[in-house]
Structure formats: C-alpha cells, structure tokens
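User: I'm designing a mutation panel for DUF421 domain-containing protein and want to avoid disrupting the core. Could you give me a predicted structure to guide residue selection? Please restate the sequence first so the numbering is unambiguous.

Assistant: Good idea. Sequence first, for numbering, then the predicted structure tokens:
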Amino acid sequence: MFFDDVQGLIRVLIIGVLGYIALVFWLRVSGKRTLSKWNVFDFIVTIALGSILASVIITKSVALLEGMLAFIVLIGLQYFITWLSVRSSKFASLIKAEPTLLLSNGEYCTAALKSQRVTKSEIRAAIRGAGILAIEDVAAVVLETDGSFSVLKQNNSGLKTALSDVSEQ
C-alpha cells in the first residue's frame, strides 16, 4: 500500500543522494552563470535539470549514469550557448531579450508597459521597493532581461549612461 518493496526505497535513497551530489558537482564545475538570474533559456535548462533528477530518482528504467550524462549535456549546452552569446552580440540577441524602459523621468512609457504586459501598480511597487516615495524622483524604471525591475534615481548630472542598451519601444 505504501511501497512495493524495501529494495525500491533503498534505490530511491541511494540514487537520490548520488544524483543530487552529481547535479551539485556539475553545477559547481559549470560556474556561476549556470545559476544566475533566469532568462528564458536558463529557466528551461533549470526545469529540465530538475526533471532529469526526478526521473533518475523515481524511474527504475533510467540509470544514474544516463542521468549524469543528461546533466552534462544540458549544462554543457548551457555553458556553450552563454560562451557564444558573450562573444557574439547577434547570437546573444537571439537568446536574450533587451532590457526595456518602462518609466522615464517620472512618465510612464505606455507602449512599453503594454508590450511587456506590466501594470503601473507593478512599477509603483518596484519604486517603493527601492525606497523611493515620489515617482518624480525616479529617472527610470527598466524591465531587465531576467524579468526584474531596476529603479534608477534622478541625479544632478543628467547623464544616463547605464541606459545605453535599454530599448525604449
């Protein structure tokens, strides 16, 4: 009723521990970028890694070494694609979205809000989260490639060099 046999429980315990150790090992070997804030590609790889680990632990027909090879393939592909995107801006634009300006000098960028499906209340929440009380004190709110918001305060210099790669849609 609760389990088929003790051997199945022992297998799950042993394979679960070994699979977990293997995944942690390969993630550490692949570097910090594999665990960075997610863009679409990172999200897919992370979900796939979790699925592989679950399959290795639960499914008797998937051997530990097959699961480890799947870890290596996915992490290797992720490493290669990020390596390539750092070296080729054209390739990077295929796999990553550009940051988008949502608010500029206290004014909402309505077209950008609509195209990115962001509400004004989400912008105000991000501004509050940055510890700012007045929208007029905000130089810009940017929707970053990982889905997070960056809130930039007004400054006296008028320079906005941090916005040089931000799409204004």
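For picking mutation sites, this is relevant: The mean pLDDT is 85. Residues 6-30 form the longest helix (25 residues).
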